[in-house]
Specification:
Strand content: under 5%
Helix content: 40-55%
Shape: globular
CATH class: Mainly Alpha
Number of strands: 0
CATH superfamily: Cytochrome c-like domain
Largest sheet: none
Number of helices: 5
Oligomer: single chain
Length: 142
């Protein structure tokens, strides 16, 4: 009887440690949704200032993001780029770029997203920032 109990405890401990040792999988953003946000008005409207491919009259107000993605941001910089999209002022104090993570700039009233609870809006904003970052990484030449 004692051996069964010890065995069960050992199995439970093993499962617990195995579960704790499993790295958390972070869900990547959706590049297609990110592209819609980047090109979208009034939501992100990144194309109003940045150059992107397939834009008839690309803007030159802000840096060319295709060039930046190909020459500056490697895969290891994904979290930093995410932070820049969320709050560019933190990195570039003189920037005119809005802080998408601080306000409700990514909340689409036409889709009723302004009716969501503050917690749901925050999660949605985080997801949209992930989508934008994923789209920006899709611009990199393979």
């Amino acid at each position: 009887m004692e051996k069964k109990r010890v065995f069960k405890m050992a199995v439970m401990a093993l499962l617990l440690f195995a579960f704790i040792g499993i790295p958390m999988v972070v869900e990547a953003g959706d590049a297609k949704k990110g592209e819609e946000l980047v090109h979208g008005r009034p939501v992100a409207n990144c194309v109003g200032c940045h150059h992107f491919p397939n834009i008839v009259m690309p803007s030159t107000i802000a840096p060319d993001l295709v060039d930046l993605m190909n020459n500056l941001y490697a895969e290891k910089d994904k979290e930093k780029l995410r932070q820049i999209v969320a709050d560019a002022n933190k990195f570039f104090p003189d920037t005119m770029m809005p802080s998408y993570g601080k306000g409700k700039l990514l909340i689409d009233k036409k889709k009723g997203e302004d009716k969501l609870s503050p917690e749901e809006q925050k999660k949605l904003i985080e997801k949209k920032i992930d989508d934008i970052v994923e789209y920006l990484y899709s611009l990199k030449k393979k």
